[in-house]
């Protein structure tokens, strides 16, 4: 694991590995080699991982499981990722694990490092022979986003990784695909009869995909200030949600079939609004100001530690997309994401058209909105169906009500964390939950013109912490005679 000392490893990857071990899903031979720019002894590594696990694991602490896992942990100190001698040491450590713990040459390289280091690391991994193909052992590379900065750099990155392993052995992590509720989109659509007949332009008015967070950027300025919310979230999580919501039925749930359908639909995504490309009308971006959230004063984005004084990075992004195919022609998909918004919520809302005729007195009928299916991705995982109902009483008064399915109330077992599923699948070589390079490429095709447009347009518009984003985001929907759901 390159980047074992980083935030992601500490908060997500290491706890997930322990949880997998605790659920009996890791081979007893499983061994973890941490690579990092620290002078750590074996005990330092052990203490660090133990703290991460105790703070972040989902399953109970079991000393026997921990001892088994800790016995297979090694640390290799790198002065820098260009330190040739350290790769030799890494090779020795990995060979020794093969000999002493029965790992049999099977290796996954988890690269949780800034993409700027990819050339140096991949070149040296290749030179060290660590990934040389072998008939009876597997070699895989797991990479974390960002998959490049734009389409051109994503292609360069792919070419680099392609120099060390075959395309099928590259596992690109989009952790949203590891979430149970995201996988359930395909179950809802393709394991039921009642939704799919309505899932098209004849009945659907529009779709809103929201990923809102109430937190700011915290200590991540170094990463975030060069990225912004469109690259951080829309390029990957939100376009994946769009693809799963809008794709055709795959012939099976294997990786090739699911990826093929996602690619097809991503290929149909357009930035034009009714055939006209004007990104001033179809995109919005913002940056949080100083203010109050949850009753406490919070800093504005520009005052956050590590943010450049002349930064133009957005912390809120919204885009209106259309899908040019028979199923979706004329149905806008609105995507939005932001930091320091009203609350943390991720959902896909499919909003249906109003009934063509309502045989009720107008006062009764105007009180009802459109039928909506809300796929609640998090935090309150489940599905809501909004429908009109008669209010009890002597009048035919109507009101919108909700039918609810909640994971918490329905299933006894807690959902595993996304990273548990993804790490396990990478070890098993199971690829359906990892986006293919072609999907990454198509996502950048959609986003590159938007980011270019924003870069030329100056600073993002400020918004109040605890709000639902800048005024331009509301105007974006108002132009179409719609409003964002107040989630
Ligand atoms: C990450 C983004 O991919 O997702 C972060 O880089 C964001 O900026 C995070 O906070 C949110 O993940 P989750 O699983 O909490 O929705």
UniProtKB/TrEMBL annotation:
Q: Which SUPFAM superfamilies match?
A: Glyceraldehyde-3-phosphate dehydrogenase-like, C-terminal domain, NAD(P)-binding Rossmann-fold domains
**Domain Glucose-6-phosphate dehydrogenase C-terminal intervals:** 186-485
Q: GO cellular-component terms in the record? A: cytosol
Q: Which GO terms describe its biological process?
A: glucose metabolic process; pentose-phosphate shunt, oxidative branch
* Residues noted as binding substrate in the record, renumbered to the chain: 175, 179, 213, 232, 339
UniProt keywords (A-Z) are: Carbohydrate metabolism, Glucose metabolism, NADP, Oxidoreductase
Q: What class of enzyme is it?
A: oxidoreductase
Q: Supply the EC number(s).
A: 1.1.1.49
Listed GO molecular functions?
Answer: glucose-6-phosphate dehydrogenase activity; NADP binding
Q: Where does NADP(+) bind?
A: 37, 145
Q: Which residues form the Glucose-6-phosphate dehydrogenase NAD-binding domain?
A: 1-184
- What Pfam families would the database entry show? G6PD_C (PF02781), G6PD_N (PF00479)
Query: Under which pathway is this protein filed?
Result: Carbohydrate degradation; pentose phosphate pathway; D-ribulose 5-phosphate from D-glucose 6-phosphate (oxidative stage): step 1/3
Residues at the catalytic site: 237
Q: Which reaction does it catalyse?
A: D-glucose 6-phosphate + NADP(+) = 6-phospho-D-glucono-1,5-lactone + NADPH + H(+)
Q: Which InterPro entries match?
A: G6P_DH, G6P_DH_AS, G6P_DH_C, G6P_DH_NAD-bd, NAD(P)-bd_dom_sf
What family name appears in the similarity comment? Belongs to the glucose-6-phosphate dehydrogenase family.
Q: What does this protein do?
A: Catalyzes the oxidation of glucose 6-phosphate to 6-phosphogluconolactone.
The protein's matches in NCBIfam families, at most eight in alphabetical order, are given as: zwf
According to UniProt, the name of this protein is Glucose-6-phosphate 1-dehydrogenase
Q: What is the organism field in this record? A: Actinomyces johnsonii F0542
